[in-house]
# Entry
Amino acid sequence: MENSEIVLKLENVSKSYGDKTVLKNINLSIKKGTIMGLVGKNGSGKTTMIKGLLGLLKLDDGKASLFDQDSWDLPPETKQKIGYVPQTINMFDGWMTVAAIIEYVSVFYDNWNNEKVSKLLQDWNLDPKSRFRSLSEGEKQKVAIILAMGHEPELYIFDEPVASLDPVARRSFIKELIDLNLDSGSTMLFSTHITSDLERIAADVALLKDNKIHYVGDLSKLKELHGEQMSLEDIFLEINK
Amino acid sequence: MSDNNEIYFQIHPSSGIPIYKQIVEQVERLVASGHLSPGDEIPSVRKVATHFEVNPMTVSKAYSTLEASNILERRRGRGMVVASSTENTKTVKERIEFIKPNLEEIAEQAKQLDLPNDKILALLKQLLENNDGK
# Structure
């Protein structure tokens, strides 16, 4: 795969729910190996954008594509290349154990790295024998992250993956992402409100404001544009004043 | 300072100064002061990215910037090293130029905070002496 290859693309994408516009003419493309942060207030359209990208909802206008395939009609082999962590983790019946869920999910994939999954379970102090419903929100989120990593995808899409993680788990998650990016050149789109995490992990950011892209590109350039006293959080607050 | 296992700079991700620029400025200072000499190895992108938990591309960008300004060069099989063309014997005056913008900023802030000059100088002296003791 060429380094300059575009892995993810949105072209003139719009979406409304009834008369409420959620996305207005969004254009975005991400090259292989990029880690891009997606930042915006609640209701700015981050989750809708991610769902549109994954073909989980129908867009009103424009086109979303992953690996050059229309998101609405992704072939199974393209789906194998994607790891997704949704914002709300309620995809399993609570009585299933963590181990059973992992086994259930693993059969959908040609590649499944059991060794890696076991290591992550251990690193993140998760007992495979626990029932899903007995887990805390943070632990559920960890399970969802592990499930998204088991098949070693080329592209990761994270929708608020760290919201319920404690700082130790967040840092360990970030370290894992850096290793993945270094070892496999994985591409990542990462939405979060925790801007301090994005400042570490993302070299590029897309800022959503009023359902449009307010800024997309190099995080360093954004900081240079705003002067040296401002963190990403300060910039985010200023833009949304 | 030539030990590749040693990471001799600091990164503050939430600073307004972009991470790549923080690395560039610190390497420039270390080279200007002679703490890094021509041929000294610079810690690898992997090492810096995993040590500080920052995006590898950002570290790469810093190194490319330093390479473009002839401060670093790529050596086959050894990664990045301080360029042989770099003078490590910059004069005191030249080295002062590197630190001057930071001092100007401190002077400005001290004025805004209405802090007396002698207090600031005493604190700076104390910090410098602590450094010497290390």
Q: What stands out?
A: The mean pLDDT of chain B is 85. Chain B has two domains: 19-82, 92-133.
